[in-house]
Amino acid sequence: MDIAVWNSIFVAAAYFLYFAVILTTIFVVILDNRSPVKTMAWILVLFFLPLAGLILYIFFGRSTRKERLISRKGYARLSKRPMAAYQAQLSVGGEHGKQRLMDFFNRVNNALPFAGNKVTVYTDAVSMLSDLLKAIHQAQHHIHMEFYIFEDDAVGRLVRDALIDRARAGIKVRVLYDDVGCWKVPHDFYEQMLCEGIEALSFLKVRFPQFTSKVNYRNHRKIVVVDGNVGFIGGMNLAERYVKGLGKGVWRDTHVRLEGKAVYGLQTAFLTDWYAIDRTLLTSEAYFPKIPVQGRVLAQIVTSDPVGEWRDIMQGLMMAICGARRYFYVQTPYFLPSEEIMAALQTAALAGVDVRIMLPKRGDSWLIHKGSLSYLSEMMKAGVKIYLYKKGFLHSKLMVCDDVLSTVGSTNMDFRSFEHNFEANAFFYDKETALALREIFLADQKDCILLSARVWEKRSWKNKVTESVVRLFAPLL
């Protein structure tokens, strides 16, 4: 046979092998038994973009929900200290509705509710950073810090230098940063911390080819614990844009400082992540000191991850939405809800609950923002009120319900937060905190446009088609 025939045979074999791999991948996706929406999204990608789709699936598609980064035995040993402290205090009571949610988080997430906490709420990065730096300066034993983004800019260097100063004073400092979230940060930035005695580790380091599937599962948590009795949690990262904003607009975010036994929950979350990466189990009593009553707030630190059996925070939010009687307010920068959350919000609105969702008028990601806009017509049709924040970029992840339940944390109302990221939220079960967060929502509402269903439907066909096409891939964004 001549060269032309051999070339034809080689090309035919290559095509056969290529399509066999694609069909096998589609078969694997189907057997994974995910939600039909997500399965169809991957099949569409693999069918219409075979080569790109296969690469995307290798990096972002493989499920790790059945894997475990930490053993049950290791977690039991780690949670022994806060568990003992919790059992030593009086039992936590409450109304039946919120007691059910607390019990749910306790059962599926090992999240213990703690009474006697003081909560300080921040709506701008300047005030949060000011108090964070004060707490760092006052540290006497240890500082534990975990952020999705820890930039090498004016803000990042300010915090880094403060940590170095305390490390030189003999304070034990541990830092966790997300490997993908900090990809653009020079290695020297963290190397300087290491040289000063700070233990700085990246979470799920992505190196080819061993951990390509891990690029999709990121640690989105923002947690700080100082001396085991002061903690911070919310939506703010350590980067200059959180102070200066994007372009001409402000960066609107929400963060909280906790003082009281709820810090045990933050400590447990950090030490669990530390063990998952460093395999060092830290259970010293010094990390869970005795804490007197600091306030009147009942709080619970809840985490979620892509490797557990359940989608803890998403399922808890479903319970909260379905349990709402008067109102349920949501602030989120991205709105790509799962079918379950979307149905819960629509059902609550149809039942007469005042459901309000606040989104940024301009997003920081064109693709995700277009996907978010595709859900708004269905929401408004059910009676959900949509507010578009026009003062800048809204990055806040805040929810408040019926003056009794509220939450602040890192969880966005989208597929990525619910299914792919490691997230952490503080849930509060008291009227005072709920009213404070409700007032924050209503104050932001003054800087919003209330979307009209009639006007919204008049937007151009180009926008409608773009939004609908992007929505097909919403489960993958």
Q: How is this structure best described in words?
A:
The protein is of the alpha/beta class. The protein folds into three domains: 3-58; 72-103 and 111-303, Endonuclease Chain A (Endonuclease, Chain A, 2-Layer Sandwich), CATH 3.30.870.10; 312-476, Endonuclease, Chain A (2-Layer Sandwich). It has 19 helices and 19 strands. Strands 4-3-2-5-6-8-1-9-18-16-15-10-12-13-19 form a 15-stranded mixed β-sheet, sandwiched between helices. It is globular and about 65 Å long. The relative contact order is 0.13. Residues 208-214 have low confidence and may be disordered. Keywords: Cell membrane, Lipid biosynthesis, Lipid metabolism, Membrane, Phospholipid biosynthesis, Phospholipid metabolism, Repeat, Transferase, Transmembrane, Transmembrane helix.
Short description:
The chain is α/β, with parallel strands linked by helices.
**Estimated helix fraction:** 40-55%
Low-pLDDT segments: 208-214
Q: Over all CA atoms, what is the radius of gyration?
A: 23 Å
Query: How many helical stretches?
Result: 19
Q: Indicate the structural class.
A: alpha/beta
- The first-level CATH class name of the largest domain: Alpha Beta
Could you report the average pLDDT, rounded to the nearest whole number?
Answer: 84
